[in-house]
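User: Can you help me understand a structure? I only have the sequence.
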Amino acid sequence: MRFFAFGALIIALTWECDGQPTQPVVRAAPGNKTMKPPPVKHYADGRVTVSTYAPDGRLLESVTYADSTARVRHGETTVWYPNGKARMRETYSEGQLRERLINYPSGRKQLFEQFDSDGLLLLGRSFAESGAIVPYRPYNADAEFEGGIAGLMTYISKQARYTPQALADNVEGRVFVQVTIDTLGRVIEASLGKPLHPALDAEALRVARTLRFKRSARTNGRAVPSKLTVPVTFKLK
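Assistant: Let's start by predicting it. Here is the structure, written out as tokens:
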């Protein structure tokens, strides 16, 4: 068992993920090496745990639900790597994710996250094999700009310029631009969400295309493309 203290909070990470728990081995029909066997359901204390197996009998996933309808997750959900080592364990309360513990493939890093009843992140920590704290990166996250939202707004305000035509027309307001961000944090596409004035629309698009995010969005720990709506404000002084 490992104990980690953060101020007044103490976390005990007892999940070492050395292998799968003892479960009945379920295999596909003889001669069928590709078809997955049907899920196995286990009922206890009014809850149902649904276990999914590979054709060779390896346990792939185990999900506990609040009741026999198997619709609302309540309890532990565990997913295993093909080699039999546990990849991720999540704890749910009435369908809401409350804790997540992840073991990365190398086996040299763990990630632990806690969430409140609204799904907001309360605590996120990453640990090396030795138990030392290492830089934390969320398992699921939006693309991140240097300095966060404040940094993004500051960058835009410094880059956006009034055009002579917009000044002559005495126009001010906000242009909304939807950008597509690739896995390297680059803006690869920009389109108008809410136009304001042709000249200011063009300037907002120009600024949006210069954005570079320090981290791309992540889903299940992997970098993924994402979309973001960026407001560009023009105000006459």
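Now, to help you interpret it: The helical segments are 148-159, 164-168, 198-209. The longest helix spans residues 148-159. Let me know which part you'd like to focus on.
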